[in-house]
Amino acid sequence: MEFGVSLELNEREIITLVGAGGKTSALTCMARELAGRGKRVIATTTTKMLLSQLQELAEPVICPQVPELLEKVKEKLKKGNLVTCGSRVIEGGKVVGPSLEAVSRLARLPVDYILIEGDGAKGAGLKIPAAYEPVIPSESTLVITVMGLKVLGKPLKEPWVHRPELILGLLNREELPHNVTVPLAATLLGHMLGGRKGVPESARWVVLLNQAEEKREQETGRLLAEELFKYGPDRVILGAAKFEAPVRQVLVPAASFSTNVGIIVLAAGKSSRFGAPKQLLPVEGLTMVQRVVASAVRSGVGEVVVVLGHRAEEIVPLLKGYPVHLSFNPSWQEGMSTSLKAGLLGLSPRVRAALVFLADQPGVTPSVLQLLAKAYSETGKKMVVPYYRGRRGNPVLLDRSLWEEIFSLEGDKGARDLLNRYPEEVLTVEVDCAGVIEDIDTPEDYIRWVKKT
Does one domain contain both 242 and 288? Predict the structure, then answer.
């Protein structure tokens, strides 16, 4: 998933990135994405940035005089839709950014997005800002605080943490842990003089937890996101800025609440048998994915994670307003097991079991989900499956104790393998809902289902 899609950007934005652990990589990735979609983009800094980093995007316009800088940027925008700029180059091959006044005037040009690096971190994964930083234009509509997840567990000192000597004073403590912990990272990122420093009241605030490439980093990132929600970010993004699919999870406070059971909606597939994306089919005034997600949310069973892959950029806008987390599966073509893993990684660490809900089952009602969750809570069985008139169906509930086995699955395998492996742990629940055995695999299935409803 692209950064622009995950951030739900407006038509015109001034975006300032601060923090450490991948800030420049994220800015570079976002600039290329937006320019690739035909948007006019200016990338710059309000402090200092390596000339070579700006040159990765475009040869920068360097000019100390604001009127001349504006004219040159305007001319560049006529020839291409991605421009970088600064006021001068200093020793060490660094570009000093334009003044805040110049940024204000750049914003009046015919441009869609201005991307700004608002501070430096000397390659650290976490930073505490000095008194003179970050430099965030008051016109910023979005501020993104970045941290690299690989700093967790590292010593609380340079080079892993930039300016660690400021932490004691910032938090008014006499002692700190020796290493970077999840609670400490959350406190520093959410502090008004830490990761939230200088964010304009009118701006949205987002935290990007970068370096979420592997399972371990995504698990710790999800744990950290849970701690961060109390500080009020618009969303927390788990990303991998240097990879082709830079966004792995989009987590929102509205979708997070404490229950034993979470729901995973699997909506990542290409629908090869159907011949078109089933998620986008119309179903009673909604798309199919909206219908399924709405049922999951209305059930009130627990938080909902929607796993996306194929054509995610079209599905994400459809889910705007739904209190759900999004988990992107960059390996969706490798089969259901990869989507199941992505969904599990998107659930809160407080969740004890997952209800796996297929996006091509619009006939499953909220009451079915409630019944399965209730049966799990009352019996403690590790797997709960619905039956309709003697036929086994979906969704299937899986206890957390089985999740590690799921992470060992490969290809197009799902819960069926576990059901066959541990029959003594399977609880069957009879339901009065034909939707549990009706998945829409072909156009004929869809036509029959529409006629019936």
Answer: no
Report helix, strand or coil for 36: helix
**239: nearest Cα among 13, 12, 17, 11:** 17
Domain boundary among 254, 278, 304: 254
H-only helix segments in 128-240:
167-171, 182-190, 215-228
Same-domain pairing of 20 and 144: yes
On whether both 302 and 197 belong to a single domain, the answer is no
Q: How many domains does the chain have?
A: 2
Distance CA 186, CA 210 (A): 14
Whichever domain contains 207, its CATH number is: 3.40.50.300
Domain residues for the domain of 8 are 3-254
Token readout for 307 is 């796993």
The full length of the chain comes to: 453
Distance CA 121, CA 118 (A): 10
In the Cβ-directed half-sphere of 69, how many Cα atoms lie within 13 Å?
A: 24
Domain at 395, CATH number: 3.90.550.10
- Same domain for 217 and 131: yes
Rg for the chain (alpha carbons), in Å? 24
Q: What angle do CA 362, 298, 394 make, to 5 degrees?
A: 40
CA 2 to chain centre: 9
How do beta strands 235-239 and 204-210 pair? parallel
Judgement on whether residues 193 and 323 belong to the same structural domain of the protein: no
- Boundary of a domain, candidates 200, 221, 254: 254
pLDDT at 441: 78
Using the CB atoms, write b or e for 226-252: b if 16+ within 10 Å. bbbbebebbbbbbbbbeeebbbbbbbb
**Maximum C-alpha span of the chain:** 78
Same domain as 269, residue 240: no
Instruction: Give the whole-angstrom CA distance, residue 181 versus residue 36.
Output: 38
Model confidence pLDDT, tens digit, residues 8-17:
999 999 999 9
Question: Residue 416: what pLDDT?
Answer: 81
Confidence of residue 448 (pLDDT cuts 50, 70, 90): confident
Of 130, 99, 131, 93, the residue nearest 116 (C-alpha): 99
DSSP collapsed to 3 states, 206-233: EEEEECCCCHHHHHHHHHHHHHHHHHCC
The C-alpha angle 403, 337, 301, rounded to 5 degrees, equals 55
**Do 278 and 310 have their domain in common?**
yes
pTM exceeds 0.90, yes or no: yes
Contact (CB, 8 A) for 289 and 318: yes
